[in-house]
Amino acid sequence: MKTNEKIGNRENKIERKMIDYKRRILIFKRLIKPQMEMLFRLSIQGHDLFTEKDRLYLRNVYDHFERLSSSLDSLRDMIISLFDAYRTQTANKTNEIMKFLTIFSTLILPLTLITGYYGMNFTHMDELQWKNGLVLVWFLLGLSTISMLSFFRFKKWL
Known about the structure:
The chain is mostly helical. The chain has one domain (2-154): Methane Monooxygenase Hydroxylase, Chain G, domain 1. α1 runs antiparallel to α2 (52-118) and α2 packs antiparallel against α4. The protein is rod-shaped, with a radius of gyration of 34 Å. The chain has 4 helices and no strands.
């Protein structure tokens, strides 16, 4: 049980880290946006306080901010893609577990039905008086299991 708990905690940590990285990127993007607008206005509209060399420098700084913003968008997209891939992998794992449990339950159901029927405490059941009644029940149990497994393989569910 501890191993499953560790795996579950590790998966939750991975999800939390991805969400945290995405949140940090969005915060950083919000922080640089006003500075980009200010640099754009100063470099294009500029005041008499700045020389042409200063405006060129401001445009260069603006270009760096623009590249940084583009890189942040790319990082955010990569994190979203990783998160989607991680979720898909987790869903596939869960589907495999559910497939196994469903097949197991389906195999157990007829066995439970047969043993439940013959396990009733009625005295007027003809099969209980048969000499080979127990063999018949075991034969029915084996036949139902084998036929269901054969059907599952035929459908390529196993």
